[in-house]
Amino acid sequence: MDIARPSNARQKRIRKALYAVTGLVLVGLITLGLSRLKPAARSVDGATVWRHTVKPGPVLRQVRGLGTLVPEDIRWIPSTTQGRVVRIILRPGTSVRANDVILELTNPQLEQEMHDVELKVKASEATQASLRVQLLNDQLQQRASSATIEAEYNKAKTTFEMKEALAKDQLVSALELKQAKVDSEQLAIRADIARQQLASAEESMRAKLAVQQSDLDQVRAVLLLKQRQYDELKVRAGFSGMLQLVQVEVGQQVGPGANLVRVANPGRLKAELKIAETQAKDILIGPVESIDTRVGVVDVRVIRIDQSVQIRTRNVVY
User: Which CATH class is domain 73-107+233-265?
Assistant: First the structure.
């Protein structure tokens, strides 16, 4: 016969609920535990790691940029007068010395002016020589006249002294003695005036010669200027270095102040580097830096950082 079993559905539901609650609690505990764990260290292959003891030392900062070496001493040689280029003797890239002629100019008007001034100098020198001779003759005549008056005065003075001595013995009348005294005094005055005239004539001679000398010096100064301008038609380097640029061609007409050639001293160079603005902040003025020129490393010192807003870079000059 069939025996009816008691129903256990309620117990099954309770058991399932307990299992569910227990599972949720375990999941929560596991999640909480995992959230409190620290990140695990990364692992790498030991063969690829270089092991060494950490020590304090300098930190090397490297920046990259394009640059050029430019001379520190650069001189433009300008034209001092108007002229036309007739010959170019040296070309760029040639080593030059101070007196080396680089090119030649011609100026016919300047040559004519220089010859005219030379003639004026010669005429002024001849005028000065003629004036000197004339003034010397006048001075000699004045001296002769003064000497004659001085001799007459001495003669009159001696006559007066003689008659004064004879008058004591009453050998000469008082009238003759008085006349001799008047003649002596008159000639003394004339002799004094002659001496003053001679001194004045000498002063006048020196003044006239000084005026003529001033005119001669002025003309000579103009001649020196013209000669210097004529000599500068041969354009010279001015100092030893390297000829970098000749800015004119044969037959070209140039005016005063126009730049003709450029000479630089290759013995003193500086590096101008263009560094990106994002890296230029790592460069400071003053400290010693090193530049790798791909052919060697040189120690340099930063002397200037030029900020440029238009191209947003900095030109660093070493």
Answer: mainly beta
Nearest to 270 by CA among 4, 61, 94, 71: 71
What are residue 294's DSSP bridge partners? Answer: none
- Say which DSSP state 281 is in: T
Q: Round the average pLDDT of the chain to a whole number and report it.
A: 79
Query: What is the distance between the alpha carbons of residues 141 and 134, in angstroms, rounded to a whole number?
Result: 11
Which one-letter DSSP state was computed for residue 154? H
Give residue 302's pLDDT.
77
Alpha-carbon Rg for the chain, nearest whole angstrom, is 56
Q: Which helix (H) or strand (E) holds 170?
A: none
* pTM for the predicted model, two decimal places: 0.56
Domain boundaries, the chain: 73-107+233-265, 108-230, 268-318
E-strand stretches of 36-194: 65-71, 74-78, 83-88, 95-96, 101-106
Give me the amino acid identity at 252.
Q
Reading the block at residue 67, the tokens are: 């640059």
